[in-house]
Amino acid sequence: MIKRYDSDKIKQLVFNIYQAYGFSETQSHKVAEMLIYTDLHGIESHGVQRLVMYDHFIQNGKIRVHSQPEIVKETDVSAVVDAKFGLGQLNGIYSMNLAIEKAKQHGIGIVTTRDSGHYGIAGYYADMAAQQGLIGMSSCNSRPAMLPTHATKAFVGTNPIAFAMPAKPHTFIFDAATTTVPQGKIEVYNKLEKDLPALWVAKNGNEPVYDHTQTEDFKALRDPDATVGLAPLGGVSENTGSHKGFGLGIIVEVFTSILSMGNISTEITPEDLSVGPCQSFTAIDPAIFGDKEQIINRFSRYLQDIRELPAIPGKTIYVHGDKEAAAYADRKKNGIEIDDRTLEEIESIASRLNIDYTNYVA
C-alpha cells in the first residue's frame, strides 16, 4: 500500500540518518534535500526508496563516509574529478557546482567524475544549472543492465541522460534512462507486486518478462552472467528502434567513463569495493550565443506552442517538466508517496542507528 507522508518530516528523518552515519551537518542536509526533491517531483524509484541500497553500500564500505572528491585534471572549461567512492549525491553536487562556476567564467563547463556512487536522478544536477540561468546536462553509467540490440546478456548500463534549460512558467527538464525504464522502477513494481505493463525486461534477448511472480528472472537482473536484462529505449528489435537506446547508452559511456578514464559498465559490480560508477556534468551559459533573456523567452514560446497543439480527445499534451511541476505542487501540499515496504526499510535503518522515527512517519 502507498501512503502520503509530510515531506519536511521525512527530510528531517533522512537528515538524522545521514548524520548518524557520520556525514557532516552540511552533507546530510544536501543528501536529504536531494532525495526529497526527487520524491516531491514524483520520481519514487530514486527518492527515499534508494535509502536501503545506500545503507548497504555504506555498511560494506563501497560508499566511504569521509571521502572528499579531488580534481585530478583541469582546464578553464573542463575537469576530471576522482570521487574516491564518496556518496554519489555529494560528488554530483560538487562536480556540477564546479561545472557551473566554469560556465559563469568561461561560458561552458564540463566535468567528468570517476569512482563515484549511485547519485540518484540525473535531472537534479541538470536543474542545478538551470536554477542559475544556465543550460545543464548530466549523465551516469552503471553496472550492466541493458541488452544491446540482438544480445542475450546485459552489457551497457541504464546510463541516463538529463537536460535542463530555464523556461517559463517553469524549467524544462528531460531526464531518462537509455533503457526503457530504470532499474529502480522495476524494483518499485516488485515491491507493489504488480506485473510490468510493457516490454521493460526481456530474457534470452527478446522474450518479454511481465509477470511479477517470475522472481528468478527479476533477481537475475543483478546477475551479469544471466540472460535477462532491461530493454533499450525502443524495445528489443531494430524495427522498433532498439539500436537508438543502445547507441545513446554508449554515448553516455563516452562522457562518463571513457573521458574520465574510469570504470565502464562491465567493470562495475555492487560488491567490488575497488570500482565505482562515473558521471558527467555540463553547464552552458546561453549568453555565449546571444541575449539570454530573448533566448529563454523564445524557448518558452516554443514549448507553449507544443502544449497548445490539438490533442487526442481526453488527453493533455505535456512537455518535459510539466508533470514534475504538477507533482511537486501536489506532494508539497499533500505529502510524498511512500510504499509500505520502503517505509519498513527506512524504519529498520533508523532503529539500527538508534533514531526515533515515530514522530516523522505518523
UniProtKB/TrEMBL annotation:
Keyword line: Oxidoreductase
The molecular function GO annotations come to: oxidoreductase activity
The domain of life for this entry's organism is Bacteria
Q: Which Pfam families match?
A: Ldh_2 (PF02615)
According to its UniProt record, which protein family does this protein belong to? Answer: Belongs to the LDH2/MDH2 oxidoreductase family.
Which PANTHER family does the entry link to?
MALATE DEHYDROGENASE, OXIDOREDUCTASE-RELATED
| Name of the molecule in the record | Malate dehydrogenase
List the source organism: Loigolactobacillus coryniformis subsp. torquens DSM 20004 = KCTC 3535
Phylogenetic classification of the source organism: Bacteria, Bacillati, Bacillota, Bacilli, Lactobacillales
